[in-house]
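Thread: sanity check for a docking pose with zinc ion

Original post by kr_44:
Hi all, I'm comparing my docking run against an independent structure prediction. Below are the sequence and the ligand SMILES. Could someone generate the full complex and paste the structure tokens? I mainly care about where the ligand ends up relative to the chain.
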Amino acid sequence: MDLSPGPSTSIGPAKVDWTRYGKRYRSDWEHLPECEGWLVRALGGDPSKARCRLCRKEIRAHLGDIKKHARSDM
Ligand SMILES: [Zn+2]
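Reply from moderator J.T.:
Ran it for you. Here is the predicted complex with zinc ion included:
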């Protein structure tokens, strides 16, 4: 399953909504199969960061980085 945003997936409104494209943390990501159980919002509520509950590391709130972390962690 490829969840990365791309021009081929045109579901929803066409306008660019940056909250969808990984510049900010999205709590939706917590429900992705790769992220479930470890991904949490960064301490302090910084929207540009996410956090791994397992290794207690901060990750950039970019879906690519989060997925990379998921692969390195499991
Ligand atoms: Zn981790």
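The chain has a mean pLDDT of 82. Hope that helps with the comparison, let us know if your pose agrees.
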